[in-house]
Specification:
about 180 residues; alpha+beta; Aminopeptidase; eight-stranded mixed sheet; about 30% helix; binds coenzyme A
């Protein structure tokens, strides 16, 4: 069982008691607007329960992590963060994509920046990753600010690359390699 701590947060496996807030988060279509093309939003409590169970099971497979972000003060779920292992190379793992989201009401307090910094340290120092990559819609300005604050480097801008809410929209790709992170 992996538990990562920051000043204000605990990053840990999801647990059954998280379900009510997990459902609130994963079914909030307005807050999760930019995640809607990825099929992770839920539309019933039963679907949220299955999604939560899948997140727990995923961490046992060695293919990456789906973690709960909880407040240290009361261990309440406020978001999610994780990554998938895209490749296992002779020099180490490639994590792609890393992803994150917060419940409505918790934005703009620096929580995701704090959580991403901690997960990058885990990926590079404990999980033998040599590269972590991520991507977002160009319209998602807050997440791009997070990318910049934690040291992700923009590698690509793909024009009209993914369907979202009635239009093909631009996607930005970012990465940070272990040697870049160390310096
Ligand atoms: C994107 C998201 C993860 C950011 O998390 P967060 O904890 O609020 O991020 P932080 O507080 O560390 O930083 C947010 C930055 O965006 C800025 N910001 C917020 N709204 C903004 C806006 N409309 N325009 C410009 N900047 C904005 C904040 O001022 C802050 O920048 P600063 O530190 O320079 O002041 C969060 O908003 C979220 O969960 N959104 C919904 C899900 C989502 O889009 N996930 C990412 C998918 S790739």
């Amino acid at each position: 069982m992996i538990t990562l701590e920051t000043d204000r947060l605990i990053i840990r496996n999801y647990k059954p008691a998280d379900l009510p807030r997990y459902h609130q988060m994963m079914s909030d279509t307005e807050n999760m607007y930019f995640l809607s093309p990825f099929g992770i939003l839920t539309h019933s409590m039963a679907a949220s329960e299955e999604s939560l169970a899948q997140a727990v099971a995923f961490n046992e497979l060695g293919k990456g992590y789906r973690f709960c972000i909880a407040t240290k003060a009361d261990d309440q779920l406020i978001g999610g963060i994780g990554y998938e292992i895209a490749a296992n190379t002779p020099v180490g793992k490639v994590a792609d994509p890393m992803g994150w989201f917060l419940m409505a009401g918790y934005h703009n307090k620096g929580y995701i920046t704090e959580a991403v910094k901690r997960l990058l340290a885990f990926a590079f120092l404990q999980d033998n990753c040599v590269r972590v990559a991520t991507a977002c819609f160009k319209d998602n300005v807050p997440t791009q600010k997070v990318m910049a604050k934690v040291g992700f480097r923009k590698e690509a801008e793909k024009r009209r690359a993914m369907w979202l809410n009635g239009a093909m929209r631009d996607r930005l790709e970012f990465a940070i390699n272990r040697d870049e992170w160390e310096t």
